[in-house]
Amino acid sequence: MMQTRLILEAAPRQKDSIVVAEFWQDVEPILERNKMLRSMPQPPRRRGDWGRHIATIPNVILVRWLNEEHARGRTDLALFSKEFDEVVKRKLNDPDWAYLRTD
């Protein structure tokens, strides 16, 4: 479960104050499950196979990826949209994020 904490960073002038959202999650169980699933044989890939499990991604990682895309100027991007699915696909094909994959 992801948790959120809101922090008020007060400035001398109230209008200059900001609210920071901090997210955290215990990702260890998810990563351990991914590791276990990678060690198990997977059925062969077939075109259009919707039943194949590819990855389990912690919510904090999804929020991070969304925030990174927003910082790049893609402010219209939303979680779980078709466009965000493309971001997720690209990330999961990146070797830096391979530990999230289960296949």
How do you describe this structure in short?
This protein is of the alpha+beta class.
List the helices and strands and how they pair.
Blueprint: E1 3-9, E2 18-24, H1 28-38, H2 59-71, H3 82-92
Antiparallel strand pairs: 1-2
Strand order of the largest sheet: 1-2
Count of individual beta strands = 2
Shape: elongated
Figure out the total of helices. 3
Helix share bin: 25-40%
User: How many angstroms does the end-to-end distance come to?
Assistant: 24 Å
Task: Flag low-confidence runs.
Answer: none
Q: Main β-sheet, in a few words?
A: 2 strands, antiparallel
Beta-strand level of the residues, as a percent range? Answer: 5-15%
* C-alpha Rg (nearest Å): 18 Å
Q: Strand-and-helix sequence, N→C?
A: EEHHH
Question: Would you kindly provide a written description of the structure presented here, covering whatever features stand out?
Answer:
By secondary structure, this protein is of the alpha+beta class. It has one domain. Helix content is 34%, strand content 14%. It is built from three helices and two strands. It has helices spanning 28-38, 59-71, 82-92; strands at residues 3-9, 18-24. It has a two-stranded antiparallel ribbon with strand order 1-2. β1 (3-9) and β2 form a beta hairpin. The longest helix has 13 residues, at 59-71. The protein starts with a strand and ends in an 11-residue tail after the last helix. The model has no long low-confidence stretch (mean pLDDT 91).
Please tag this protein with its features.
alpha+beta; 103 residues; 14% strand; elongated; two-stranded antiparallel ribbon; single chain
